[in-house]
């Protein structure tokens, strides 16, 4: 059935109430590889309860921590198989630092836009999250391509490019992912078998399961905080990233960053494969509004 853009974008938001605890934050950090230097105080701030820092990217898993099934992406006006979806980009806008504990947080998710990219449709899912008291916490935007569902007659929509500065980077580091990293990360609620089942991965054209894009997203943010922002998680106002290639668990990422006044530009490439691109991102940084 062709996509019905009007029906999808006018369907009421789906509400969800959820909680999280310091243990959930720690599990997220450990799934990204935190604690790899277990005597480093800066690393322990992500890996133990003492003075626990919360990575802003925890926002992308906070709602799914208790999910044990593959994500349900069906919406009125949009019918597609999970295998047709490709995560194109992810953005979070922080309205306040994420606390290590919350009870009764409230999320509303809606289809904010649907664009016709020709061979694929691009669906933007927007989630606004607030505390039980109603204070805004963050806004999350997931942009998902649906392969084979373009050509429905919608607008093509805007394209946003992240410009890499034409100068030497301010910092470069490498992060080795673990062979079992995707098996850890799936426990945060993303049970898509593409990341765990070799048969499913082969059917999708990959030699083995691939790492979750959102795992690369979190690894890259943690690295940027370390090499450019002195691990000041509260300095991050926004984090917008395009997924530009796949990462296989066990590969080494090379993170390259430029600090440009009120933002940071970050690239992630796969060092093992001649620096094949994996992610291109921009962080908005500065004092809280």
UniProtKB/TrEMBL annotation:
It holds the Pfam family MaoC_dehydratas. GO terms for biological process: fatty acid beta-oxidation. InterPro entries: HotDog_dom_sf, MaoC-like_dom, MFE-2_N. It comes from the Bacteria. Residues 18-148 form the Peroxisomal multifunctional enzyme type 2-like N-terminal domain. One of its GO terms (molecular function) is enoyl-CoA hydratase activity. Residues 164-265 form the MaoC-like domain. SUPFAM superfamilies: Thioesterase/thiol ester dehydrase-isomerase. Coiled coil: none annotated. Belongs to the enoyl-CoA hydratase/isomerase family. PANTHER family: ENOYL-COA HYDRATASE CHSH3, PEROXISOMAL MULTIFUNCTIONAL ENZYME TYPE 2-RELATED. This is 3-alpha,7-alpha, 12-alpha-trihydroxy-5-beta-cholest-24-enoyl-CoA hydratase. It comes from Nocardia aurantia.
């Amino acid at each position: 059935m062709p996509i019905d853009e009007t029906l999808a974008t006018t369907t009421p938001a789906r509400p969800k109430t959820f909680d999280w605890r310091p243990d959930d934050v720690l599990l997220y950090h450990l799934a990204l590889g935190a604690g790899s230097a277990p005597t480093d105080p800066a690393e322990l701030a992500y890996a133990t309860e003492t003075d626990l820092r919360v990575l802003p990217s925890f926002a992308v898993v906070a709602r799914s921590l208790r999910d044990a099934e593959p994500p349900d992406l069906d919406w009125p006006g949009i019918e597609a198989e999970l295998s047709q979806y490709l995560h194109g980009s992810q953005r979070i806008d922080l309205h306040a630092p994420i606390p290590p504990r919350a009870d009764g947080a409230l999320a509303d998710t809606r289809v904010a836009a649907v664009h016709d990219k020709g061979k694929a449709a691009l669906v933007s899912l927007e989630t606004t999250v607030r505390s039980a008291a109603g204070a805004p916490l963050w806004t999350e935007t997931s942009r998902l391509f649906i392969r084979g569902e373009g050509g429905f007659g919608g607008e093509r929509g805007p394209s946003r490019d992240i410009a890499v500065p034409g100068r030497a980077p301010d910092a470069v580091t490498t992060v080795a992912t673990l062979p079992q990293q995707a098996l850890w990360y799936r426990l945060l609620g993303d049970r898509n078998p593409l990341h765990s089942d070799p048969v499913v991965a082969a059917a999708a054209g990959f030699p083995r399961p691939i790492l979750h894009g959102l795992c690369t997203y979190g690894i890259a943010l943690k690295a940027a905080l370390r090499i450019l922002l002195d691990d000041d998680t509260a300095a991050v106002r926004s984090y917008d990233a395009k997924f530009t290639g796949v990462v296989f668990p066990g590969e080494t990422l090379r993170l390259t960053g430029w600090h440009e006044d009120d933002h940071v530009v970050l690239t992630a490439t796969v060092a093992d494969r001649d620096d094949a691109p994996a992610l291109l991102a921009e962080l908005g940084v500065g004092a809280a509004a």
